[in-house]
Structures are given as structure tokens and as C-alpha cells.
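[09:14] KT: can someone run the structure on this one? pasting the chain below
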Amino acid sequence: MDAIFEDFLVDRNDELDSAAYQLMRLMLALPEEEAEDDPFPWDMQHIGELEDFIDTYLAEHGHLVCHPYYEGDEGVPCYRGEDCERKTCPFKENHKEGEQ
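[09:31] RB: done, C-alpha cells below
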């Protein structure tokens, strides 16, 4: 199941990164697609900071996001770890233990 979780993690984080980047481009009134001499190119530092802000903002307002990760030095998938505070898990809801 961890291979399936890895696919979920990569796809979900790509989706979140793309949405955050598109939101910034929308706020700046830039075209949806980057141009060669783009004034606001893809930058994970900006994207990560926006995602961290949104995570914090939503938590302060009683909402918990699904931003999958590996927990601790052992790299435990968040759905098996102790740090995730969500009562429901989109990954566990769509995958059963024992699936490969």
C-alpha cells in the first residue's frame, strides 16, 4: 500500500502546487501559462510559502487540509502516523489495507 500512497502523495502535492501557482498568477492578472520571459516563473519557495499560509489560515478557522507527507525520521506515511489531525483521510477512504 505504501507504493499506492507514494502515487497519491505525488499526485496530490502536484495538484496543490499547481493550484497555488495558478492562484498567484490569477492574483497578478497574468496569463494562465508561463511565457519564455515570464515575470513570475514557477518557484517552489513562493508556492510553499503560500501553501503554508493557507494551511495555517484554514487550521485557525477550524479546517484541516489534506497535504500528504512522510512523518518522522522513519518516513511513516501520514495516514499511519500520529501527527495528522484529520478525522477522515481521503487516502484511507479510497484505499483498503492490503492493496498493492
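[09:33] KT: thanks! Residues 55 and 61 are 10 Å apart (CA to CA).
[09:34] RB: yep, looked fine to me
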